Amino acid sequence: MSRWEPDARGRLEKAALELYNHQGFDATTVAEIATRAGVTERTFYRHFADKREVLFPADNPLPDILAGATAAAPLPLAPLEVITRALVEAAPVFEEREDLAPQRQAVIAANPELQERELAKLAALASTLAHTLRQRGLENTTAALAAEIGIAAFKVAYERWVNDPDRHPLAQHIRETLDTARHLIAPPDQATATDDVSRTGQESVA
Questions:
Q1: Cα–Cα distances in Å, from 26 out to 10, 40, 112, 175?
Q2: What is the reported pTM?
């Protein structure tokens, strides 16, 4: 008799993260994950190629979302405003797994190999943003720098969101963190003006 049940992928993901946090990523086997989720190992491999793919899905929609949102942003917008819009549009991808996000972060933080994988994933997203910004007409250096700043700010925003006891939306953390990034190079007497512009842009996005 088949042991398959609806939402097997979601139960496998939840079971894997619980085991990774309880006994460590390296010590956890696929068989243990499948047993905890109430499915067979064959079912696990139907959804994931290996244990790491639970944390880094192969069917990640983020590159397409970021590229599409960046390309569709109004041309007069400054590069960081374009990136802010793109990252905000991608926020729901993470919020769908909001309850699992802290567990995922804890697993990655405890494993250097997984940390490298996470950094590689972020670098790939930065490359996607830079490529799309160049297609919008930005010079290579400007596009690359804007993309790297955007992804660095997103990393900070994501960590703030995961640890936020008040559970503010990820989009809010993204906007606030990118506002902070802009202020790093703005003279103090221009900070208020920058805030006003940012708020206007946020209202437009909303």
A1: 21, 20, 11, 36
A2: 0.83
